[in-house]
Amino acid sequence: MTPTNGEGAEPPHIVILDGGFSTQLSCHVGHVIDGDPLWSARFLYTHPEEVVNTHLDFLRAGADLIITNTYQASVEGFVEHLGITAEESFELIVRAVELAKRARSAYLEEYQDYLQNDRIPLIVGSVGPYGAHLHDGSEYDGSYADTTPVETMKAWHRPRIQALVQAGVDLLALETIPCQEEAEMLCDLLREFPHMKAWIAFSCKDNQSIAHGESFQKVAKKCWETNPDQLVAVGVNCCAPSFVSNLVKGFNDDRPHDPIPLIVYPNSGEKYNPQIGWIDRDKCEAVEVFVQEWLELGVRYVGGCCRTYAADVSRIRNQVHCWRDRWRFQAKYPYAQNNNAE
């Protein structure tokens, strides 16, 4: 989005997200996380200090917000796999927010002499899809929505959202949602928490469709229209970075004066092999390579998902700064851009 003559000299505000929580957590715990039915949420119970340290890594790398370690956290899941009560499970989700707040407090104390007043990081409560707790792979294609009643999914989501809201998150991340049915249900459920805002991000199987097969742009716009007062952005996560540009290109062509804020935080592009783990990192273009292109397409929230580390967040932030500097230059010297074009 290149500034035109007459626009102000300040570029749009860009929010830097954190990266893949389990990926960065693995640097601290030295345990295999992939394949666990609770994924990284187990470490809320077993290694809370390392959860704090992981959040701190992202803050030190320049993230404007940190997302709680609750993607795969649920009351039922903790009861089944940790052997604790439903009440204790609810409190463990609350604790996830408290751990994130501890990290934020430590960061603010550590950098108090350098931070501006508007640089107070947000705490965002992660709400992953219903399929994640099934641990059968259906979260990757959304097939569970074909057989699971909407009310069943809503009843499963409600207490985890309630715990996050009760614990005082600033925002919710309804993330890695693979299917339209669950997305619309979550936008409706959000109304039960009228003072809470959220973004919704979809997992996508290609450069047009969400994981279950519906059109990303159609579903995302419908979600926004369903609850524009509580959604702060719509977008994609947990997909290949090479898909992102086509997914968001032209998204706001029909509303140039009132664009819907877009959020993207893709994976590294690596592939997962069940026998040997993540492969082909050396064949992937780094996420930061795409960042300025995404910003030109109207993205206003950007970060990383699976297999992105704190170091990747730092590089993403650098790209955002470069884009903002270029934006300011073009706003101040529009003739320079025209001369270059000639």
Compact summary:
With 342 residues, the chain is of the alpha/beta class.
Describe the fold and architecture.
With 342 residues, the protein is of the alpha/beta class. The protein has helices at residues 21-29, 43-46, 48-61, 75-82, 86-110, 150-167, 180-189, 216-226, 241-248, 291-296, 310-332, 334-341; strands at 15-16, 65-67, 122-127, 171-177, 198-202, 231-237, 262-265, 271-273, 277-279, 299-302. Strands 1-10-7-6-5-4-3-2 form an eight-stranded parallel sheet. The protein has a two-stranded antiparallel ribbon with strand order 8-9. The longest helix is centred in the first third of the chain and has 25 residues, at 86-110. The mean pLDDT is 93.
Output the keywords.
342 residues; alpha/beta; TIM Barrel; 8-stranded parallel β-sheet; two-stranded antiparallel sheet; 13% strand; globular; HCY_dom_sf; zinc ion binding; Hcy_S-methyltransferase; Homocysteine S-methyltransferase 1-like
**Alpha-carbon distance between the termini?**
20 Å
Share in β-strands:
5-15%
Globally, the shape reads globular
Give the neighbour order of strands across the main sheet: 1-10-7-6-5-4-3-2
The Rg value, from CA coordinates, equals 20 Å
What's the CATH class, please?
Answer: Alpha Beta
Biggest sheet details: 8 strands, parallel
Number of domain units: 1
Low-confidence stretches: none
* H/E element sequence: EHHHEHHEHEHEHEHEEEHEHH
In DSSP terms, counting alpha (H) and pi (I) runs of 4 or more, how many helices? 12
Count of extended strands: 10
CATH topology: TIM Barrel
